[in-house]
């Protein structure tokens, strides 16, 4: 492997080592490992990084990323502990090569301009690698234990990490680089880090952004996107990570946390290039499946997800991501039996959230007509519902909102004598999958018919003397069905009918016993109709109403994310940048 004649800074191996590795060689080997990794050669990539993980910071970062991903995919304690140890080691290795400042220099930074030319290439890269390792360590802190302390520790690490990325940007901008290759790789990391921070912070609700700005954070969507796009077009080592972030944002984050579409055409262009380079890469096959899913091309989505699933077996836990998606694709196709197969596999094999998986499986089974169920399956539904609360977990001292939602629904199931109205459709709605229904009329029409059928039977059930619980929760059940009907009609481009349904939900507010979330969610659906009609002022009023006049309901934070992104779009940059004193 050729070494640049301009790079003579050495990464010393342990004292008993007889050889040394320069920065160019470390970067070249890390780039080889990245290519191996994205071509599903996970073991070969790990084998290249691990031997020098105690001495070379790029090998240490590579090894840490692999252990971190394994921890995230498995959620198993031994893998989380291994990742934590690898990241601790990585930070120690990076600190060895970071620029050492005297007390006088540290104090001087406050009063005079820093001379970034004093940094060597190695010291500059050490700052960047430290920031990356610290960010992963912070994310791991949230799941290492269940206390509030872990939340505080994680938050402080993320704050320090953001400050380090800003300092890296100063180094990039103000330092005279002797090696263009070194600068190229460094810049791709700065673009990825700052771009991701700016993009993700910009998604947070306004009140949280104000707090974060007070303690040193900033969030600017346009700046973040531009950094990531620039990074994705470079030849730097972190180019592929910029691409992954852009795909994740446009194909997942946009659809979960906002009412907006991701930039699907841009994602198509990115995936053409990446699949050409990594034709069997599990990650890009997965994103191709997600792209087709978001386009509403469900048959194509199934094909690509299955291709991703079957492309490798080294990390079987990655299959769980594909199974999650396959579960929902089949739900949108109303193929409950096929969806049930993937739901069952997740319950039995994945440790991410057994509470959610268990409730999802039970909900899908509830969608099957009684005559389609065996007697053993009817008993299984009840058993699953009883098990849902048993697996409830806490992360960073907090219960997961979706798990709390699932537990409340199981209580309702038993209160209504083993019955719930269209629970899988309700989950599709709260996971924000209804927007896919609007891609093809037949998808929305299929869901609409199920909701309408349940509304037709609603009166009979409420009046049934054999089940008085239906009367107790009459308003809750009616509001749910009307919300789903209204949401369907909006996707079917029937705004007047949709508005009538949603206004009826809002009118039921005082009669609803438990499912208070239905009303603010209905108000936001109304706001989206106003947006579609170009009625900006009315949309803002509705969104502000949902934001300020309702609180303490299920999945509140999830809705606030969507309200924030809608207001940000309607109010423009004055809202997005959150000037002090006003939104």
From TrEMBL:
Pfam families: Iml2-TPR_39 (PF10300). SMART domains: TPR. Transmembrane segments: none annotated. InterPro entries: IML2/TPR_39, TPR-like_helical_dom_sf, TPR_rpt. This is Tetratricopeptide repeat protein 39B. It comes from Anopheles arabiensis (Mosquito).
């Amino acid at each position: 492997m050729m070494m640049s004649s301009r790079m003579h800074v050495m990464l010393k191996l342990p004292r008993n080592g007889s050889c040394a590795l320069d920065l160019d060689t470390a970067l070249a080997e890390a780039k080889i490992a990245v290519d191996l990794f994205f071509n599903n050669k996970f073991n070969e990539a790990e084998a290249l990084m691990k031997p020098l993980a105690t001495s070379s910071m790029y090998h240490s970062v590579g090894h840490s990323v692999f252990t971190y991903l394994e921890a995230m995919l498995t959620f198993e304690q031994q893998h989380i502990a291994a990742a934590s140890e690898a990241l601790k080691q990585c930070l120690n290795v990076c600190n060895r090569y970071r620029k050492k400042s005297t007390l006088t220099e540290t104090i001087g930074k406050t009063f005079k301009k820093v001379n970034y030319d004093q940094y060597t290439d190695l010291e500059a890269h050490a700052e960047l690698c430290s920031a990356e390792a610290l960010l992963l360590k912070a994310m791991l802190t949230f799941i290492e234990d269940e206390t509030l302390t872990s939340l505080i520790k994680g938050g402080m690490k993320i704050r320090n990490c953001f400050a380090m990325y800003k300092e890296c940007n100063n180094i990039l901008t103000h330092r005279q680089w002797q090696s263009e290759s070194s600068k190229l790789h460094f810049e791709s990391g700065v673009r990825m880090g700052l771009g991701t921070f700016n993009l993700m912070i910009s998604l947070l609700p306004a009140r949280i952004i104000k707090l974060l700005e007070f303690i040193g954070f900033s969030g600017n969507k346009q700046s973040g996107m531009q950094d990531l796009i620039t990074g994705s077009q470079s030849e730097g080592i972190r180019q592929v990570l910029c691409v992954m972030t852009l795909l994740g944002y446009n194909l997942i984050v946009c659809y979960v946390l906002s009412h907006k579409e991701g930039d699907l055409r841009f994602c198509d262009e990115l995936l053409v290039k990446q699949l050409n380079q990594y034709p069997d890469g599990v990650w890009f096959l997965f994103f191709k499946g997600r792209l087709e899913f978001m386009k509403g091309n469900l048959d194509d989505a199934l094909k690509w997800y299955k291709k991703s699933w079957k492309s490798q077996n080294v990390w079987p836990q990655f299959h769980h991501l594909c199974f999650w998606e396959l579960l929902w694709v089949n739900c949108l196709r109303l193929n409950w039996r096929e969806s049930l197969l993937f739901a069952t596999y997740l319950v039995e094999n994945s440790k991410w959230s057994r509470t959610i998986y268990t409730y999802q499986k039970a909900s899908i089974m509830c969608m099957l007509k009684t005559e389609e169920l065996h007697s053993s399956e009817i008993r299984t539904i009840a058993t699953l519902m009883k098990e849902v609360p048993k697996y409830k977990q806490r992360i960073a001292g907090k219960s997961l909102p979706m798990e709390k939602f699932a537990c409340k629904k199981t209580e309702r199931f038993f209160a209504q004598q083993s019955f719930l109205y269209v629970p899988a459709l309700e989950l599709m709605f709260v996971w924000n999958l209804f927007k896919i229904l609007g891609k093809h009329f037949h998808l929305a029409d299929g869901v609409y018919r199920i909701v309408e059928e349940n509304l037709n039977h609603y009166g009979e059930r409420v009046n049934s003397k054999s089940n008085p619980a239906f009367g107790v929760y009459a308003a809750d059940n009616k509001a749910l069905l009307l919300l789903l009907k209204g949401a369907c009609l909006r996707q079917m481009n029937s705004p007047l009918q949709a508005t009538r349904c949603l206004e009826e939900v809002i009118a039921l507010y005082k009669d609803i016993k438990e499912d208070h979330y239905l009303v603010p969610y209905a108000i936001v659906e109304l706001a989206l109709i106003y947006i579609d009609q170009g009625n900006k002022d009315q949309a803002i009023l509705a969104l502000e109403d949902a934001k300020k006049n309702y609180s303490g309901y299920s999945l509140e934070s999830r809705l606030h994310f969507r309200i924030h992104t809608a207001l940000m779009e309607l109010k423009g940059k004055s809202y997005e940048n959150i000037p002090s004193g006003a939104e």
